Automatic annotation (TrEMBL):
Gene (UniProt): hemH
Pathway: Porphyrin-containing compound metabolism; protoheme biosynthesis
Record's keyword terms, sorted: Cytoplasm, Heme biosynthesis, Iron, Lyase, Metal-binding, Porphyrin biosynthesis
SUPFAM superfamilies per record: Chelatase
Name of the protein described by the UniProt record: Coproporphyrin III ferrochelatase
Annotated organism of origin: Paenibacillus violae
Broad class of enzyme this protein falls into: lyase
Amino acid sequence: MTKRRVGVLVMSYGTPESLDQVEAYYTHIRRGHPPTPEQLHELTARYEAIVGGFFPLRENTNKQVKGLEDTLRAEHPEVEFVCYQGLKHAQPYVEDGVEQMVKDGITEAVGVVLAPHYSTMSVGGYVKRAKDKAEELGLKMSFVLDYHLHAKLIDALSSRVEKALTKFPDAERNDIRVIFTAHSLPEKILEMKDPYPDQLLATSKAIAERVQLTNWQFGWQSAGQTAMPWLGPDILDVLKQIHKEEGVKNVLLCPIGFVSDHLEVLYDIDIEAQALAKELGLHLERTESLNTDPLYMQTLSDVVYTKWQEESKQS
């Protein structure tokens, strides 16, 4: 009996693969408007600051896509799952991934984004692009919208918090402020009743309960440089405030909005926030990124398989 072949479009933000691609990447983010020389220099300098311009995000994403395919095939050998990449701002674009599935003879597919929390501005944008292309090409496709409270995801994140807490001296263990973070979005999502902030808080609370944290809060990071206001407070302002007003000396950052090591983790936290912490005299640590953690791969495998099963029953 021939196995059913099911395509899985794994979507993420994308990143340039080398320094000479930074300008084209940034131009795409800016909807075709090239960056000024100053903006280009600033972004390139950030990549260069990360181990001399090594680009970990693309490699991490490639490994995550492969890890998900391997996990799906191991857990559900009766189905031939085939994973494809679809990136927002770099090749292969979301539409390229959908097109490749159709070229390969895939007739049914599931889309999932490497971001556990739903926002119309992030996950919603990926889904719309993939859906439009799938409809144009006649591909039957369904989508996982979020998985922010999946038990295995909470397990993976909680174990990272527990492990990172051991980086502080035992005598100071009760005086560590844990701050959960995620990528800021424009404030206008609040008017849209977007679920993003609430889902992030729900994940934070679930981890805090599991690890029995009482001393924790939430902060935003990596806001865009635009005229419109973004969600705050920014993590750098939070560090200054808790140090000055509350005398906090130990901080653990847990970037739950990011699933792999990339610019927002390796630069915005490991370099920028760490430099501020040093200036303030804070002991700052962060939790390890999920990357290809088996529990994260199993989370993605579960939500993809469940979505495919739901669609199969309806058809």
